[in-house]
Specification:
InterPro entries: Impact, Impact_N, Impact_N_sf, Ribosomal_Su5_D2-typ_SF
Distance between the termini: 21 Å
Shape: elongated
Family: Belongs to the IMPACT family.
CATH class of the largest domain: Alpha Beta
Radius of gyration: 23 Å
Protein name: YigZ family protein
Number of helices: 5
CATH architecture of the largest domain: 2-Layer Sandwich
Pfam families: Impact_N (PF01205)
Helix content: 25-40%
Structural class: alpha+beta
Strand order of the largest sheet: 2-3-6-4-5
CATH topology of the largest domain: Ribosomal Protein S5, domain 2
């Protein structure tokens, strides 16, 4: 079962593709919410306020993906879907790609537009740094102070990632565990005397 996904670490540098006097500026941004997407779109519309089209595609999610492709006035499926095709080709998610077009006075035709938007999106992705991240599940462990050594040993032996902890008379630890290992780790803690574990829905 796959428990990793690919995304980009930071916004790409600006790239430029030219075809018959039309300019296509490409950008890629790491995003997690539609609110972030809208902020980046507004920033680019301000920066390129004289452009003719701001076409884009985005994909969000680690396992259950949802996406949108927008032609922004270009002929149907000549801009947004070619951009989205590059997101699929590079197998990245939590990403927004925007291609800004300045019309150069010569019509490119649907085939020319598809090639231009696809190429600008590809260039933006090639200018980005890609990272592979694990898909994790998050668990809360509760136990009394005397069980501390047992719990800490299990955390160390299984090389688990501690997100937060409160170690007092009644102790709480929040763990992030890789999806493929989560059930096995859960059972280990669940079988440990006086240790309570439950999954958090984040």
């Amino acid at each position: 079962m796959k428990d990793t996904y690919k995304s980009i670490t930071k916004p790409s540098s600006e790239v430029l593709f030219k075809d018959r006097n039309s300019k296509f500026f490409g950008y890629a941004f790491p995003v997690k919410t539609e609110e972030e997407i809208n902020i980046y779109l507004e920033e680019l519309k301000t920066k390129h306020h004289k452009a003719r089209h701001w076409c884009y595609a985005w994909q969000l999610g680690k396992e259950d993906f949802h996406y949108r492709a927008n032609d922004d006035g270009e002929p149907s499926n000549s801009a947004g879907m070619p951009i989205y095709g590059q997101i699929q080709s590079f197998e990245v998610t939590n990403i927004l790609i925007v291609v800004v077009r300045y019309f150069g006075g010569v019509k490119l035709g649907v085939g020319g537009l598809i090639n231009a938007y696809k190429t600008a999106a590809q260039m933006a992705l090639e200018a980005s740094e890609t990272i592979t991240r694990s898909i994790d599940r998050v668990f809360l462990i509760k136990f009394d102070y005397p069980e501390m050594n047992v719990v800490m040993r299990m955390i160390k032996e299984n090389n688990l990632n501690v997100l937060d902890q409160k170690l007092e008379l009644d102790c709480k630890i929040i763990l992030s565990i890789r999806k493929n290992e989560a059930d096995e780790i859960f059972e280990k803690f669940d079988a440990t005397y006086k240790v309570n574990i439950k999954e958090l829905d984040l």
